[in-house]
Amino acid sequence: MTAAVEPMTAADETAPAPGRANPAPRHPWSDDPYTDALRAGRGPLYLRRSDGWLLPLEVERWCAGADDVDLEVVRRCEGAVLDVGCGPGRLVAALAAQGRRALGIDVSAAAVDHTVRLGGQALRRSVFETVPGEGRWDTALLIDGNLGIGGDPSALLRRIAHLVAPHGLLIAETVPDLDVDERVRVRVADGRGATGTPFPWARLGAPALFRHAARAGWRPEDHWTAGGRSFVALRRDRDRDRSPRSTNSTAEPPNRTAVISSHRARKPSPDMPVADR
Known about the structure:
Structural class: alpha/beta
InterPro entries: SAM-dependent_MTases_sf (IPR029063)
Pfam families: Methyltransf_23
Protein name: Methyltransferase domain-containing protein
Keywords: Methyltransferase, Transferase
GO molecular function: methyltransferase activity
């Protein structure tokens, strides 16, 4: 089974998924520090909570080519791959370089442009909107903190279950070595005073992910660590999912979806905030 990467039309760009309300207007991201960082290929860049808590984001790593840890994720992918929140597109490009069928989706125009320049296919799209090949992707990816998208892990996992084929695979990156399960509102900040629009965001360790996954129709298949990062492979379990096509979601509209983010700080551990400057 393979999922075709369908051409995008103007109607596709704004069409809501079946059974969902029209999303709120997109945030243009034109003045957002995330866009500036992607275009420059470097930080500093942080997720900033209202109390001043900061988590460094690894822009340089995201904008570089896939490293050995990334390539292990690529090796584990099956069939056609959907990279949810693909960011600058290093995984999509790595898959394409191997002749693998892959599509990245991201709400950031700068991220999509970067992915295309690397030779990957990408659409500016929220995971909560209509996605090409729904129900036919063999593998979905939630890497670099993208379990945080929408701030509601259970809703996100239910949505991914709708996108993959029966018994499809999900590979997700989690907070390493921590049983973290938190939901907060954050902004992207450059540490020099510029901040983006607030959005809901979540952080999960592997134990919390397994709990949410069981309720959303997924069963654990593997868990590994590499390069200080933690990954979980989940298998779509149609027998345990009573409502695989559910469209109920408490996640916010796509323009408030979390940007690509990393669980792993460059120097401090991910559970330790760094001081706001």
